[in-house]
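note to self: dont lose this again. the chain is below, predicted strucutre after it. 541 aa total, dont forget to put it in the shared folder this time
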Amino acid sequence: MTSLTSGLRATDQLSRDALAVLQPGFPGTTAPEWLLRLIGEGLSGVGLFGRNIAAPGQLTALTAQLRAERDDILVAIDEESGDVTRLEVRDGSSFPGNYALGIVDDTDLTHDVARELGRRLAACGVDFNWAPSADVNSNPDNPVIGVRSFGADAALAARHTVAYVEGLQSSGVAACIKHFPGHGDTNVDSHHAMPRIDADLDTLHARELLPFREAIAAGSKAVMSAHILLPALDSERPATLSPQILTGLLREELGFGGLIVTDGMEMQAISSVYGIECGSVLAIAAGADAICVGGGLCDEDTVLRLRDALVQAVRDGDLPEERLADAAARVRTLADWTRTARRALAEPGAETQEGTAPGAGHTTGTGRDNLRVDLDWADLADIGLVAARRAIRVTRGEQPFEPVADAPYVAAFAPVANIAVGDETPWGVAPALAEMLPGTTTGTYTDSGTGEPGETAALVGNVLGKAADRRIVAVVRDVHRHPWMAAALDALIAARPDTVVVEMGVNRAEPKGALHIATHGAARVCGRAAAEVITGKDAGA
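---
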């Protein structure tokens, strides 16, 4: 009987450890019953996405519901701000993204933006952010990183990654630098297929690894692995599944002692080659501590299948029990840090003791109870708009430019959004212009995919027909990567030289139009900052 009891306890602990390393998503704005039950059985983390968030008060209630089951649960979110936002998925972010911050190149500003973002997360009970992107965007044709990176210069990316990590963690929210060992030099989106980087070791150490090395030294609590193949490091397995990369490079060579979490395991780079169950076992065996799943798959069956796969792998000898236990312990260690930080920052006067002034909407602390959550995000501190304004770069055409005084027609040339950004978040300048110039109208134009020469003429003819005698504001995103967009823009400017061009992606193409505005990101505040330039007035006036 004693032996049987001991065996049952061991099995129970094995199951709890297997649940502890999972960070699943779930549907809805309240926690489903199955999720609460699994939290009681050992699940130590959850991931939040746009589908889970409607408003600050609702999010606070949701995280309180989760913590009623387990106070030390890690509540994670993929909130990069800028183009990738979950907090403000329906309206667009109040903060510009990394690319805009890199263009300004003021590390104090990056620190303060990250700290304000962290305050908002902490106020709503979120304590683990899968951000920032530490990738060096060295390939301008990169379809998935782009404006999510601080830039193409490794030293710049490194100093801003450090500033972001320090700012975010000063608010009591754990940072997670991604996508290790660097996703910037790819031309394939790992959501769809396996990217490959053929750089040599010297290049990888000087470029890709520099931001990670410096952010680890600065104390980043977590690192997210990338589903990319780097033959110079491992010719067979992608980073997420590679012992050479996660254990040999990250743990032993770079000395990282925190939590290693995977990128989403349902992404095709893993799921179509290994399957998420086998992939998850291989990831933990390679040195990962937490499995991110739920951007697409977010149901009880997926969580149970992954738990059972990990338990069976231990029983079959494919995954050392000590490795699973170590991974679970690292999850719990991070949860302990966030809980301690959350309580410390909730102490009266905690923020002023650090010598920092509270932001708008705050009292003297940064804990959940000390931040007003009955306000809209936009009512809080305006540091995001300040940053977006500083990131604007304007190039004037040969003819004098007169600010747009009457309602214009906004032609938005829209590429297909990558999965990380999503297509549900609005972008552009039309909403801000409509507030400033009532009567502003807009149309969205996409690639027909036919490649027919007449398509450009038809598209431009449509714009001209709807613009009539209005000024045209043409909004583009990564025009250098989209020949159809570049052709349409050229034809439009030839027909209407007074066209204003707003580039809201990576600014690589030659400036065109009567006025060319590069916002270096498509967040809501970037659109507002551009609208101020177009009209010559402050949108808040």
